[in-house]
Amino acid sequence: ASLRPTPSPLLVAGQLSESARRGERLFNDPAVGCALCHGGSAYTDLKMHDVGTVGRYDHPTNRFDTPTLVEVWRTAPYLHDGRARTLGEVLMDFNEGDRHGTTSRLTPQELQDLAAYVLSL
After folding, report:
1. H runs (alpha helix) in 38-104
2. HSE-up of 76 (CA within 13 Å, CB side)?
């Protein structure tokens, strides 16, 4: 509880950029669903989920813990096995069936805005 996260270098004068503010609305939109698992002050529900990212070396029934998104800007690569180099890849390339948030209907700009928000946490 005594640890304080380092502010994201993507903040503008300590505040969310315009893009990140748009992304925050998407993040909290129940139709997108990010905040369902990445909610609260730690941005995690501390639960295990099957988000469709089981790899060839994983057990087919593996489920993965919901990581915190605090300081996610410094923790690339992403996913349990590091296969996603960017958050864009998490949202677009490794989200088969929208099991890791409903992102397939988002526009390229909305995906950028969503990534900008998450990278600002």
Report:
1. 87-92
2. 11
| Distance of alpha carbon 61 from alpha carbon 50, whole angstroms | 8
48: enclosing H helix or E strand: strand 48-49
72 three-state secondary structure: helix
**Which residues, at least 6 apart from 97, have a Cβ–Cβ distance to it below 8 Å?**
52
Whether the pTM exceeds 0.85: the reply is yes
Query: Which amino acid is residue 77, in one-letter code?
Result: P
72: left (phi over 0), alpha (psi -120 to 50) or beta: alpha
**CA 121/CA 67 separation, integer angstroms:** 13
Predicted local confidence at residue 2, as pLDDT: 77
Evaluate whether 115 touches 88 at the Cβ level (below 8 Å).
yes
**72-to-68, 85, 121 alpha-carbon distances in Å:** 8, 12, 7
pLDDT one-digit tens code per residue, 31-63:
999 999 999 999 999 999 888 888 888 877 778
